[in-house]
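## Example record

The block below lists the input lines for one assembly entry, exactly as stored, with component labels intact.
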Amino acid sequence: MSLVYRSARADDLARAEALVVASINDLTVRHGFGPMATASPPNFQLFSLKDDPEGLWVAEDDGNILGFAWSWVCGDVWFLAQLFVDPAQQGRGIGNALLERTMEHARKSRAAHKALITFTFNRVSQGLYIRHGLFPKMPIYFFNAARERVAKELPETSLRAVMIDKSVATIAKLIEIDSIAIGTSREKHHRYLLDDPASTGFLLYIGSDCIGYGYIAANGHVGPVAVMRAEMLRDAFATALKLAADRPTEKISAFLPGTCDGALSLAVNQGMRISFPMLLMASPGYGDWTQYLPRNPGFM
Ligand SMILES: CC(C)(COP(=O)(O)OP(=O)(O)OC[C@H]1O[C@@H](n2cnc3c(N)ncnc32)[C@H](O)[C@@H]1OP(=O)(O)O)[C@@H](O)C(=O)NCCC(=O)NCCS
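Predicted structure tokens for the full assembly:
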């Protein structure tokens, strides 16, 4: 049978997720980091497929999925959430062919900015992205630690956290914060997170002024976090760590951009350790995140 590239369907997504997990772990084990990924239900993939099917592609041969690409668009930002090829099939042009199809999604959507998060230690992905006009922008570190260690002597802040509701006023606030922090509205993605029983969102206030938001997951993962001004990010992160540490999770984790000095110093002071070095790559002019902590390399 011959290799075909086609739009992904809902019933491909669980198999695509298995391929992604195998491909990530092949890469991270090969580079001495040990396995990084475990399979989870492809809920966000399914959400994106329903929202905008043009961003999801598979490479298929004789009924077997050999590669998967998935991009989403919010406003004028296009984001490559995943690009993965079966380890036994890498280096024969499949990744490039899938990337061309998702780049077409960016063109059709008239996205002004393009971005993705990849592994700092993957030379192949970085070379491929540079070929397509996406350049290394800044490191993003995946930090984690035991909950008890993070909880010890967490600094107090003057921020007040209030559970997010789905009111019109709250959604308008989230849109405003994202427009300032990352240059686009992510309204649909907030609606996705707010419907996710494993995520808890909160707005952050100084007095009566709402200055940011954050989310924590049931497994102790922090993010996304966004604030109106860069100097507030460290305290927003401290507040999110406190909320995460108050829950009965084993570990606490977060993705921290290399530009967010205060949050990085706080993570290290609380005993958090860098377990995976990642990299933001973007089209020229995008990606100076000093007011934003991403959730993960797929959600941004
Ligand atoms: C990254 C990945 C998707 C690429 O797919 P692939 O099918 O192996 O890649 P292709 O064969 O289409 O393209 C490889 C290209 O990478 C580039 N490349 C490879 N090694 C490179 C290096 N050391 N330096 C610079 N560029 C390099 C070249 O442009 C090469 O194309 P060429 O051989 O025609 O010159 C795939 O290798 C993979 O799944 N890797 C593991 C997971 C991963 O890191 N995914 C990206 C997550 S964002």
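The longest helix spans residues 13-30. The chain has two domains: 4-111, 145-273.
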